[in-house]
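[[Local backbone shapes]]
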Amino acid sequence: MDIEVYKKIFDKYNGVIKLVDFTSEGFHNTILNKLIAEGYIEKIKTGYYEWVDSEFISDAVVIRKLFPEAVVCMESALYLYGYTERIPLAWQLAVSKNNNKSKYRISYPPMHFYFIIDAYMNLGKTEVMFEGHLMTVFNRERTVCDIMRYEKKMDKEVFNYAVKAYVRDPKNDISRLMDYAEKMNIKRKVSAIIGMWM
């Protein structure tokens, strides 16, 4: 078995490949079983495989491959924007509540899913670079609206730090924030909390 040939295929897909992509490259799926048995690859979940070696594979690649519809949210989004000093223990991702929840069962990397209504899935959706890869994430204003909506479920220190960091951020857009807050029916709360720090 020519390992370098298969390594190049995995490299082409940033170290994580779907079964359909592997077979479309002209290889039979039984080769994947041999590669697993010999310790070259690991099965992440049904139909997805990761090359095992010393090279670092960003979580951004795994998330985008496995859950292209997911949007980074809550404390994970705060982390991407520098609005928290704490590294989240799990990636927090928003997905449509209409999706089949069983597809989101995965042990690594650790993930926590928020199942939200479709009307909110595209509100403030954008992309940022993380470890050299694009990640779909809610923008600053949408993220602040989300943490205000779930304030009671958050650590008070993390919440206060994030709001202060947003208010001080020269990239903030208060008018957009209030527009989102109105659409999410939390305008009074957002206005009151932001007003305290302005």
